[in-house]
Amino acid sequence: LLKKKCKKILNTSATSLMNSNKYVKLNVGGSLHYTTMGTLTKEDNMLRAMFSGRMVVLTDSEGWILIDRCGKHFSAILNYLRDGSITLPDNRYEIAELLAEAKYYLIQGLVTQCEASLERKNQDADPICRVPIVTSPKEEQELVRKTSKPIVKFMYNRGNNKYSYTNSSDDNMLKNIELFDKLSLRFNGRILFMKDIIGDEICDWSFYGHQRKVAEICCTSIVYATDRKQTKVEFPEARIYEETLNILLYEQDRPCTPHMIACTDSNTGEPVVQRSVHNCQSDDDIDDSSRSHRVRRIHVHSNRPV
To answer: Which Pfam families match (predicted)?
Structure first.
């Protein structure tokens, strides 16, 4: 009796091994896949139920088992069943698609992996870069008043001109626009960037710190060509970068740095260097009457601040 039981167990194991090594052909929404029964039934999921006889399986005339589902991510499903984990796509949208397929096939491990990846991407993702477009001085004043961040305002209005443009002006105008977009992405979250498209200037950069203008770069000038005047647009890239970095000094949470001061020892008369206290006083702490505020106005063609 014991020998018969052992023989029956061995036969059952051999049959299971043969079934697990059996290849099946799958047609998933027109995407053809070739895999083993062991892969499909490795975990307790909908595919195991489908191939264990608990569900009706449809086949076509060529023996392909039909699954009425999009086959875009089915290769990833099979790879997960083979290895227990996969490398997920970089694209958040494709991970969400794979998550939907994993939920459909009831593969809980892959569901957990996809959800964890989406959660990490949501935490690590940069916020959307929003650039307000001001259409009046009142709008600009309101934005400046409401924010505590440094501000870069880029004003461009090609139509605000009564002369013709020089040959390089259009290219330089485009370079200014591209630089503004690049800076707004690079310093997003630290600096508020805004555009002005109806101002009096043609191409002008303004920089604000502590809710007031501290610098301005005018990128246009009038040049004389024979008997007529022309408007020239410049692209002072280095100047713009310099002023953008300068206004980062106006960030509210910027750490204060101690200053080194020189003085003379009262006993020996020798010069000594002492570390002063942290100079963290803001302009708001200074009485308005004792504050002389000047805006650095830089005209590119003269290359001199006024």
So the answer is: BTB_2
- Each residue's pLDDT tens digit, 263-278: 445 555 444 444 443 4
Phi, psi of 155 (to 5 degrees): -110, 125
How many Å apart are CA 146 and CA 165, to the nearest integer?
37
Q: Which residue's structure tokens are 């796509």?
A: 89
Pairing of strands 133-134, 151-156: unpaired
* Fold of the domain built from segment(s) 23-123: Potassium Channel Kv1.1; Chain A (3.30.710)
Token pair 């001085």: residue: 137
Q: Would you tell me the crossing angle of helices 92-104 and 74-83 to the nearest 10 degrees? A: 70
Q: At what angle do helices 92-104 and 108-124 cross, to 10 degrees?
A: 160
- Identity of residue 67: I
Distance in angstroms (rounded) separating the CA atoms of residues 156 and 160? 9
Q: Residue for token digits 């708001």?
A: 284
Cα–Cα distance measured from residue 152 to residue 133, given in angstroms and rounded to the nearest whole number? 12
Those residues whose C-beta lies under 8 Å from the C-beta of residue 294, and which sit 6 or more positions away, are: none
Q: Poorest-confidence range of 142-146, 179-183, 226-230?
A: 226-230
Q: State phi, psi for 49 to the nearest 5 degrees.
A: -65, -35
Tell me the whole-structure pTM to 2 decimals. 0.49
Q: What Å distances lie between residue 158 and 165, 202, 234, CA to CA?
A: 9, 6, 13
- Which option is the CATH number for 133-253+295-299: 3.40.50.1220, 1.20.1050.10, 2.60.40.420, 3.40.30.10? 3.40.30.10
